[in-house]
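Progress note, sequence design subtask.
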């Protein structure tokens, strides 16, 4: 018996990716993506000074960013993350959505940030601030996606 691959899974379940995409609640996905901006605004206002220290940023460094590009790409990436999470949650309920979002934020994203931080010799504050933001963001995204069918 060969390995059970994703391609095998798709052929066994007869999953139609186009139909899956069409059946997603795109309004919920957009709202979930936008929620990361609301959380980020509050989060990085509260943790602005320690975040700047953890990244060795000055106010002048922050002024050099191309903010339309930063916000545009951030929304695009948030939209992709939200759509991906929506496909993972599927038809499950709000509880599953919140737990899936939390586990995604903590188990994948925050620990991935921690690995990068280790190699970049970043302080623990860097991981806690950025990883914490992702845990809260993904939890709220999962809650929205699980609740709004």
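Output:
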């Amino acid at each position: 018996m060969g390995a059970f691959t994703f391609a095998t899974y798709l052929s066994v379940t007869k999953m139609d990716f186009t139909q899956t995409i069409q059946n997603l609640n795109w309004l919920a996905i957009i709202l979930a993506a936008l929620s990361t901006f609301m959380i980020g605004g509050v989060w990085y206002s509260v943790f602005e000074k320690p975040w700047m220290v953890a990244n060795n940023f000055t106010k002048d460094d922050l002024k050099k960013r191309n903010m339309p590009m930063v916000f545009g790409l951030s929304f695009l990436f948030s939209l992709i993350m939200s759509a991906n999470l929506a496909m993972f949650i599927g038809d499950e309920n709000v509880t599953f959505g919140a737990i899936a979002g939390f586990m995604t934020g903590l188990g994948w994203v925050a620990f991935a940030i921690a690995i990068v931080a280790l190699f970049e010799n970043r302080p623990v504050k860097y991981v806690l601030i950025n990883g914490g933001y992702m845990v809260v963001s993904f939890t709220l995204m999962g809650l929205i996606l699980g609740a709004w069918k």
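The chain has one domain: 24-147. Work on this subtask will continue into the next period as scheduled.
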